[in-house]
Amino acid sequence: MTAxxxxxxxxxxxxxxxxxxxxxxxxxxxxxxxxxxRSVSIGVWVGVGSRDEQPSVAGSSHFxxxxxxKGTHNRTGLDIALAMDAVGGEFNAFTEKEHTCYYATVLDRxxxxxxxxxxxxxxxxxxxxxxxxxxxxxxLEEILMRxxxxxxxxxxxxxxxxxxxxxxxxxxxGSEESINRLTRTQIHxxxxxxxKPAEMVVSVAGNIDHAAxxxxxxxxxxxxxxxxxxxxxxxxxxxxTAPVQSIRVLADDTEQANIVLGGLGLSRFDERRFCxxxxxxxxxxxxxxxxxxxxxxxxxxxxxxxxxxxxxxxDGLFGMYAGCQPGxxxxxxxxxxxxxxxxxxxxxxxxxxxxxxxxxxxxMVLGLEDSGSRMSRIGKAELSFGDVLGLDDLLxxxxxxxxxxxxxxxxxxxxxxxxxxxxGPFGEHDFDAAV
Length: 435
Hints:
With 435 residues, the protein is α+β, with helices and mostly antiparallel strands. It has 2 domains: 6-220, CATH 3.30.830.10; 247-424, CATH 3.30.830.10. The chain has 15 helices and 12 strands. The protein has a 7-stranded mixed sheet with strand order 1-2-3-7-4-6-5, with helices on both faces. The chain has a 5-stranded mixed sheet with strand order 8-12-9-11-10, with helices on both faces. A hairpin with a 4-residue loop joins strand 10 (302-311) and strand 11. It starts with 5 loop residues before the first strand and ends in an 11-residue tail after the last strand. The model is unreliable at 229-236 (pLDDT under 50).
């Protein structure tokens, strides 16, 4: 007797119809129909990332992502590549702090092939010893590439400054030492323990029929859906109360100083996350933002400057970035610090808040014009929150943000301990005065 699945349709005015089905064993399927396109995107989201690693296996989530493409019990790595290239499909993956996603975009008629191949890659990888040795070199090259890009490296260093030697503070890629230590047994064991249907979400968007998607996924996961396996991940969810370091400078022989100044942000479960989105956008989200106007337009100190935020379970961070000539670093840091002082003391104007809300809403809608972005939105939302808001609901949450709420949050974030991270040609340079 086939175990039954539960299905419901989610409110999704402002976008396509979103449907959600939970199969036996806990596998969740979410789909969004986009009848006006001829593409379809599918993602298999696994609720495991670098935050779930012990120090002894640091970097294993990302290493594993590479290895799953090397071959399964049914296909070689070349077979996988040939099958996707033959239909013009795009096939890739990425690893984050709290999840890993394997995804493909194909013509709508090729959805059965995409479901079959992605499911095979995620569920049936061989992780052969010789592939581990080969891909180890590739991952090490990726680490070197990151180290050669100071605008990328400074963000990893910033996380380390905030969270120290904890799962959130360690780089997703791991380190040269940890990658060289990892064995095939460790990686395969990590894979066997973590990659369970109960910890997965399958998201599909495009010209699709939900019932057909469920049938394809059920077939691909056949034999695993009566196993509740896995259970809750034993991830580190500690709430951090203060940055580990206030100033972190990494000496690097670069032409630019790469700077991040900020502090702790909000958990992704914090109801003020929409306020944070508006605040971050107003500070450094566009050409009218305070950072862009004061650092680039008025003084010409940097080409690239922006604000950002990342939210996790129980923790989060926000920051402001700029890349500038080393001799201008102190001035740029002083401007960033003054921006924080100003929003903490005086807040944002009503005009800035309204402009931030409009920009955030517009950016969100314009960013959802293709099947890949729709697939990513609903998959990440289901994995992170266990539910998916319709687009109109999201816009309503942004519209409901008030200047008073934004300014209360601004005062809280600006008043906490700050963290400055700089990557550039500095030795014992003292940034204390600038902060």
